[in-house]
Amino acid sequence: MRVELLGDAAVVLHLDGAVDAALAARVRAIAAAIGRGGLAGATDIVPAFASVAVFFERAPTAAFAVIEAELRALVAGAGTEANPPPGRVLEVPVVYGGEHGPDLGLVAAHTGLTEAEVVARHAAGEYLVHAIGFAPGFPYLGGLDPRLATPRRATPRALVAAGSVGIGGAQTGVYPLASPGGWNLIGRTPLALFDPRREPAALLSAGDRVRFRAVAGAEAEFAERASAASPSGCAADIEVLRAGMFTTVQDAGRRGHRAAGVPLSGAADPLALRLANLIAGNDETAAGLECTLVGPTLRFHRDTVIAWGGASTAALPSGRPVVVRAGETLTIGALPRGCRGYLAMGGGVTVPAVLGSRSTLVRAGLGGVDGRELRDGDGLQIGEGRQLTGGRWRIDERILPHYSAAPTVRVVAGAHARDFQGWEGQEFSVSTQSDRMGVRLGGAVARRGPARELISTPVAPGTIQVPPDGAPIVLLSDAQTIGGYPQLAHVITADLPLVAQLRPGDAVRFVDVSLEEARRAAGAVERALGLLREGLARKFL
After folding, report:
1. What is the pLDDT of residues 215-239, one digit of tens each?
2. What does the H/E/C string look like for 265-315?
3. Does residue 48 sit within a domain?
4. Less Cβ crowding at N or C end of the chain, within 10 Å?
């Protein structure tokens, strides 16, 4: 077992051996042993094909050697104890072919089988769930008949219907939610593999087994997957006159659900929202608004203390609270510097929590206002805020992040850093295709040798992946939980806000630092926030 860093706030335990049922049982046993151990500060334990990741609430202060020793002690008995109990066996009805399986003929042509033979072979197998990832509830299934292996589509579809059953290489799986996808679609199931209103939300988990059963279209009733809607029919405290550009409700994110494929989400620049919340008199985890490049226009129907964080705006100052009176209209407008701005309102936005968070995950329809970005005419409710006292004040400017259009960002080396050369200090440009899932960069990194086929392993916000074209992607808060691209490096927690604020056309360089430096930087941020909390306690009733 090898223990490696996944940034400065997570570690991954890697196991050697063929990816089979025995290794899958070993992975589950280790994940269970860590879970029973109650590791201090751990929020998520994520099993994958041949690895287990442990995520922490904050960058641990303990040395890596101490954490590694504690993990090894926790899992020492996992290899000798009885295999974990077998998972459930779930029968999944599938309507094969036709409009529900548009690539069935393509798979048949590639494999030299008839469409009926493809269906028969696919439905004859029993598949092991190795991991849940890519999207909430998405099962990576092992056990596909080798004759059915078919390369992924050269051009992924922009939208795959929820319930679609596909083949990608030597794997098969089911898309739980409508999403982009590059697998070959051979059928569709009416089963909802992921429903946040259900407990547990994901129908499958690692260790379960799946059997597909071919059914006629008349036996299946397909319905659009309803989002985890947060009804907005109550009287609004704030009216959205103009929504701005991709404005969503965000908070500190969803912890504890990564094993079900649910991303962390939350503010892409978490420090900016934490600061804005403190200045508005809120708990740091309260929900506020995140906007991208262009902020919203809002009409307030009650007196509210607000604060702004992140990208600059001419409409509001940074570092101090502002009182907006009932009937007033606030127009944020274009953000001249930085990419994402955060508006905190006293009491926080009170949309219902979904899986423990109010954050919006648009691609899964979770949280926020009906699981989507804000629209003109939406209404928002806020909680009861604290009363501002003590006259006019501003926090020390030194605590505010200093964003740049060409930052040098500190990273700790990733598992595959040695596979590439010359990337440290290389200037990369920011692509227009960047979003909350990740910042795509222009400018390829050079490989030291031929590309290797990798087993998918856990990833985190800040992980820098390198796809086949060599152009790195820095993952952000909505990123998938498991990825199969090489991991070049991981942006340290203290510098992730710098990446979240990069605009298309900006430039960025990376410099490798030690884990100790990464943790010192994270500790400095937390100490500054602690002092700020103490100072602001006297500014609100």
Report:
1. 998 777 886 655 454 444 457 999 9
2. CCCCCHHHHHHHHHHCCCCCCCCEEEEECEEEEEEECCCEEEEEEEEECCC
3. yes
4. C
